[in-house]
Structures are given as C-alpha cells and as structure tokens.
Amino acid sequence: MKLGFIGLGVMGAPMAAHLVAAGHEVSGYDVTPAAGEKLEAAGGRAATGVADAVAGADVVVTMLPNHPQVEEVVLAAGGVLEAADPGTLLIDMSTIRPETSIAVAEAARDKKIRVLDAPVSGGQAGAEQASLSIMVGGSEEDFEAAKPVFDALGKTVVHVGPHGAGQVVKAANQLVVGGIYGLVAEAIVLLEASGVDALTGLDVLAGGLAGSRILELKRKSMVERQFAPGFRIDLHHKDMGIALAAARQADVALPLTGLVAQLIAAGRAMGHGSLDHSALLKVVEQLSGRVPAEV
Questions:
Q1: How far is CA 117 from CA 52, 97, 207, 253, 268, in A?
Q2: Contact 3, 91 (CB under 8 A)
Q3: Active-site positions?
Q4: Is 291 left (phi over 0), alpha (psi -120 to 50) or beta?
Q5: Are 160 and 166 in contact (CB under 8 A)?
Q6: What phi-psi label fits residue 195: left (phi over 0), alpha (psi between -120 and 50 degrees) or beta?
C-alpha cells in the first residue's frame, strides 16, 4: 500500500521503517528534518509537509505526542482531512484523550475518510522490535483493512470497540503500568531498608504471583538505578491525566490511579521528567528519606 506517516519520533521512526521493510511505499513527515533523512536511509521518502505525505495515500498513520498535535495535523487547514482523498484510512496511533479520537472520527466522516484510533504499548523497544501491543477503536471493517499495517508493527493486535475505545484501553494500560512501577519501587525501598538484597528479592517475586512484565524487564535496571528512558515520566504524566479525565467522563472513582498520578507528577516536579518511568523509585526513596532531597 501507499502510506503517509506523520510523526517520526522515538516511536514513529522505527515504526515507519518497519512498514518500508514490509514492502509498503512510505512517505513520512516530521517537524525535525533529520527524521525525514533517517526514513530515506531506511528506504522511505521524506515528505515536505503533511499534505505532501498524505497525497495519494491509501493509509495515513499519525504518531504524535498529544491531542493538540493530532488536532493540528488532522483538523487544521492543510491537514490530513483536507489533503487526503475520500476513502483514505486514517490510523491515529498517538495516545490522546478518547473524546479527541471521537471528534476526529466525526469530522472525518463528513470527508468520507475512515478512521481508527490505535494507540500502542511497548515503548521504544516495542517499536524497534515490531512487538507492540495495539488496541484499536473503530469499525470492524476498517480494522480488517488495517491489518497489513498492524501486522508489520505489533505482536498483539486487538479490536477493542468503537471510536475512542482504543484510547480508553490505553488509559487503562497506563494506570496499571504506573501502579506496578510504584509498587516495585516500594518493594525495592523496603528490601534495601531491611538489609535484604533487593535484586535477589525481586528475582523471587518475579517467579511467583507477583510476577509481571515490568519485573521481568526492569528489576535489574531499577536496582542499579539505570533510568535511561524507554518511556519518559513526562509522557506518563500526560497519560495519567488522560486516565483521570476518562474516569471523570465515565463517572467512576479510581483512587489508586489518582495516587499513582500524583507520584508521577512528583517525579516530574522533582526534575525527573526526562527519565524512564521506572524512576518512580527516586520519588519513593525521597519520600522515605533514603536519599537527600535534590535541589
């Protein structure tokens, strides 16, 4: 297929390259010119703008930081809805508010453009390894049409409901991930303060009912205080805001989510926003007086 890809950042760049490798003709655009050069090195084409990337495309993929960027790229003058041909399939893989995904789908309907919201989980490593989990909202027919794209990018691809449902599932994913990171951080602080080797303790936990993907992948780096970002606290802070807003929209109480959101906000306020979200350990340590307060 002929694909337009908007947003060639940490996640988008390897995703676009995988689509090229799968045999698709990919024209990509990013506000950073070097990103386009990287796509060309992978065999794609660097577009000069959104309209250029979208022109003649069968499918347009957007992978953008937040809802303001999605609204600008998709809805503004010269954006995707204005430039795309009727019948084009727009797949927004950004993590944004469910109501924005619904609004985009409604606006696209008037232009006879099909839309899926398809946020992903797996972080930079998942994007680079084409092992993302993809949760998709929209029609079943459009989901089936998009399968060649999804199959090049992820291992777990599930149609979860109508427009906006993908974003709700992603919000649920982020609240669970944040909560587990917070609890693993507390476990490390407890083990170390009690004189127990933290890595040995976590090795045991990982093999029992407390086991999780986070313990599998992150226990060693957390104990060693290695917080190079795979997914930054800044982005998780944004996602927790989406989760809390979705809870209010659904008229439900999520008390643990609120607490986790505050821990992540604290990490950002402490200056750790550019670190991996596993750096919640630094927040818990400081709350326990285990490290000096940072200036």
A1: 22, 10, 35, 25, 28
A2: no
A3: 170
A4: beta
A5: yes
A6: left
Q: How far apart are CA 207 and CA 216, in angstroms?
A: 9
pLDDT tens for 211-248 read 999 999 999 999 999 999 989 999 999 999 999 999 99
Q: Tell how far CA 245 is from the center of its chain.
A: 17
Q: Please, is 86 exposed, middle or buried when counting C-beta atoms within 10 Å of its C-beta (0-12, 13-18, 19+)?
A: exposed
> Which tokens hold the place of 143?
């989901």
Phi-psi region of 164 (alpha: psi -120 to 50; beta: other; left: phi over 0): left
Closest C-alpha among 18, 16, 22, 86 to residue 53:
16
Q: Which amino acid is at 86?
A: P
- The string of DSSP codes covering 62-120 is E--SSHHHHHHHHHSTTSHHHHSPTTPEEEE-S---HHHHHHHHHHHHHTT-EEEE--E
Q: Are 179 and 152 in contact (CB under 8 A)?
A: no
Report pLDDT digits (tens) over 98-149. Answer: 999 999 999 999 999 999 999 999 988 899 999 999 999 999 999 999 999 9
CB of 31 closer than 8 Å to CB of 48 = no
How far is residue 262 from each of residues 173, 177, 216, 225, measured CA to CA in Å? Answer: 17, 14, 25, 21
**Model confidence pTM above 0.70:** yes
3 state SS of 53: helix
